[in-house]
Write a structure and sequence with these properties.
heterodimer; A: about 575 residues; alpha+beta; Penicillin-binding protein 2a (Domain 2); Beta-lactamase; 2 domains; seven-stranded mixed sheet; five-stranded antiparallel sheet; 21 helices; 22 strands; about 35% helix; B: about 130 residues; mainly alpha; 4 helices; about 60% helix; rod-shaped
Chain lengths: ~575, ~130
């Protein structure tokens, strides 16, 4: 064999080996491809990541110049454990004791929960600050890990709780603005489809699809946290001073219907809503109906004046405080012989108001009350508004109008009663109350803006002007609401003291005291109602609710920069 | 006659087109490897930046929450009490109002009105 043929043979031999190896690999690849298609699909699925990108819930702001944040989402961590691992490691007691020490938890309960080998997951503590969770994880306890989560935070605590509401465990708004504006606030979650590497980390360059989450819109309220604080503080004081069962109040801008403050006591902390009771969560300002008592005389007398049936100087026989009508006795708190219409309001005579209602007649009285918004929802943008109770006129008895005139046999919410008063203050126009000023999307676009909306004009402007003057006398010397008077300002209003309804009649010991009014009389800007439920031992609206009104109004005139009457006159 | 041993004409000669093809494939492979490494590095960087952005957002929200708590009326009152300060609203007669020649009040924008301005307008006012 020559040297050349020897070399060619070696090359052929190596080429043959390579060909053989390639053939083997090809065969193996083909067989894997054909036979292992099911395994391959499973492997592909395992490498594919498909996750939801959570949308951050929008924030809620107040209306003050600083736009204070009232509700927002913050990041927290849930600390979790794998009880099976802890039991296998014989570390249940040690771990439970450590958690109890670090997180101030009940050690015995924790030992019981973590000592169950049949379970693979248990929450140790939920909604911890991330730093706290990480400090616990630094202990490197086996079977202990954390899960990041979002939680709704209400930085003001219980303030405005009834208006804001809360978000439940399913991250859905379950009360107040959180419920009403849930569709705007919640945003829209995104989607991420990608592939994972061998260590199950996402490979960014292999992302298949990424749809970013749409953040929730921000809600701007008409409420002002400073006005709210003033009102809530005054209600708290009243609750304590009069040992009352509950108290609630609203401050409304007369011309627009904007709600500046709305508070209800007892309250709750929406950060910890799970520990609150139904009674604490009830927004009494819109969700509790009550018999308004004498504050209701305002609507009846305004109706009679508007119809031209009476004038302020028209006199009525007030029967020395005791009047037998349709075999039922009606009494005045203080006996009077004769009073004119102006004094019937000022002295709050039941007999006088009842006689005016009788002059008006059932049909007209009913029509006026409904025009004032009694017996129907005013349509405030909050869930849970009650309509009140005003029976159809066909169901009225012969004494109904005389009782409705003094706020008995009719039920209203504080919002409705304030609506009546604000309509008078607003030249006879009833405005729809609202708490959401605007909703702004994450891109800054205004998605919704609430404009003032008139609901009707139950009385003429001249009647409203006349009523304003008559109501101003209530807070003057000799009036029932003089404790609501404010130095430098003329305040209009009406007191109410209503016996609470109980089985078979009216309670002799439980009352609802209220005061509803507005200021300044010359150019009304704000209307306010204060209601105190079961005050003890004093129980009249003039003694219990009117001072609260005065206390709040005094601070509001400073904060809202409402000029006093003397200045208003000088400025003209 | 003696043969020239250095001049071997019967040996294996590597085909030039194959050599070019192998060189091109090698260059392609090296380029692919480099680009792959680069994209992997960019992917890791994107991931890190996303994590940093999320952390920054969480921190901003946390600070906003703390700031809102500190600015709440209750928080301010607590801070004042801590420093032994008491603040009350001025009485009506303690407020001095300035009027221009026409007798009208110098326009002092009410606080609640400022909130109705857009952010840019508010900045101009301030």
């Amino acid at each position: 064999m020559t040297r050349a043929t020897h070399g060619a043979a070696r090359i052929l031999f190596v080429a043959g080996l390579v060909l053989l190896a390639i053939s083997g690999l090809t065969y193996r690849l083909t067989s894997l491809h054909l036979e292992g298609s099911l395994d391959r699909a499973r492997a592909e699925r395992r490498r594919l990541y498909r996750g939801v990108l959570p949308a951050s819930r929008g924030r809620v702001f107040d209306s003050s110049a600083e736009t204070n944040t009232l509700a927002m989402n913050i990041r927290v961590a849930d600390l979790c454990a794998d009880p099976a691992v802890l039991v296998a490691s014989n570390l249940v007691e040690e771990t439970a004791d450590r958690f109890a020490r670090e997180l101030h938890l009940d050690a015995a309960a924790l030992r019981q929960r973590l000592g169950r080998p049949d379970r693979r997951f248990e929450y140790v503590a939920r909604r911890l600050p991330k730093e706290t969770a990480e400090s616990v994880l630094a202990l490197r306890l086996p079977g202990v890990f954390k899960q990041d989560a979002w939680v709704r935070s209400y930085p003001m605590g219980s303030m405005m709780a009834h208006v804001l509401g809360f978000v439940n465990d399913e991250e859905m708004g379950a009360a107040g603005i959180e419920q009403r504006c849930d569709a705007y606030l919640r945003g829209r979650p995104g989607l991420l489809e990608s592939r994972l590497d061998g260590q199950r980390r996402e490979m960014v360059v292999r992302r298949v699809r990424q749809i970013p989450a749409e953040e929730g819109a921000d809600v701007y309220l008409t409420l002002d946290q400073h006005v709210q604080y003033i009102l809530e503080k005054a209600l708290d004081q009243a609750l304590e001073q009069h040992r009352a069962r509950a108290a609630w109040g609203i401050v409304q801008r007369v011309a627009t219907g904007e709600i500046l403050a709305m508070a209800s006591r007892p309250a709750y902390d929406p950060n910890d809503f799970r520990r609150s009771e139904d009674a604490q969560r009830l927004n009494r300002a819109i969700g509790q109906v009550y018999e308004p008592g004498s504050t209701f005389k305002v609507a009846v007398i305004a109706a009679a004046l508007n119809e031209g049936l009476v004038r302020p100087e028209t006199e009525f026989d007030c029967e020395n405080g005791r009047w037998l009508h349709e075999n039922r006795i009606l009494r005045d708190y203080h006996p009077y012989a004769r009073l004119n219409v102006a004094d019937i309001i000022k002295k709050s005579s039941n007999i006088g108001a009842a006689k005016i209602a009788l002059m008006l007649g059932d049909q007209r009285l009913d029509a006026y009350l409904r025009a004032f918004g009694v017996g129907r929802r005013l349509g405030i943008d909050l869930p849970g508004e009650e309509a009140g109770i005003l029976h159809p006129v066909a169901q009225w008895s012969r004494i109904t109008s005389s009782r409705v005139a003094i706020g008995q046999g009719v039920c209203v919410t504080a919002l409705q009663m304030l609506g009546v008063m604000c309509a008078i203050a607003n030249g006879g126009t009833l405005m729809r109350p609202y708490v959401v000023r605007q909703i702004v999307g994450p891109d800054g676009a205004v998605l919704h803006r609430q404009e003032p909306q008139p609901l009707g004009r139950p009385i003429r402007p001249e009647t409203a002007d006349l009523m304003r003057e008559l109501l101003a006398r209530v807070t003057e010397e000799g009036g029932t609401g003089r404790r609501a008077a404010l130095r430098g300002y003329r305040v209009a209003g009406k007191t109410g003291t209503a016996q609470k309804v109980q089985a078979g009649g009216y309670s002799e010991s439980d009352y609802i005291a209220s005061f509803v009014g507005f200021l300044p009389v010359e150019a009304p800007q704000i209307g306010m109602i204060i209601v105190v439920d079961e005050p003890q031992p004093l129980h009249t609206g003039g003694v219990v609710a009117a001072p609260v009104f005065g206390m709040v109004a005094e601070q509001l005139t400073r904060y809202l920069d409402i000029p006093p009457a003397a200045y208003a006159v000088a400025a003209r | 006659m003696r043969r020239n041993r250095k001049k071997r004409t019967d040996g294996f000669i590597f085909p030039a087109p194959l050599a070019v093809a192998i060189a091109a494939l090698s260059a392609f492979g090296v380029s692919f490897g480099c680009l792959r490494a680069r994209t992997d590095a960019l992917g890791r960087e994107i991931k890190q930046l996303e994590a940093r952005r999320n952390t920054a957002r969480e921190m901003a929200l946390k600070e906003e929450n703390r700031w809102a708590q500190a600015r709440s009326p209750a928080g301010i009152e607590e801070a004042l009490n801590r420093h032994g300060l008491t603040m009350t609203w001025p009485a009506a007669e303690q407020v001095v109002r300035l009027a221009d020649d026409s007798g009208r009040e110098t326009p002092a924008r009410p606080r609640y009105a400022a909130s109705r301005l857009s952010r840019s307008e508010r900045m101009r006012v301030e």
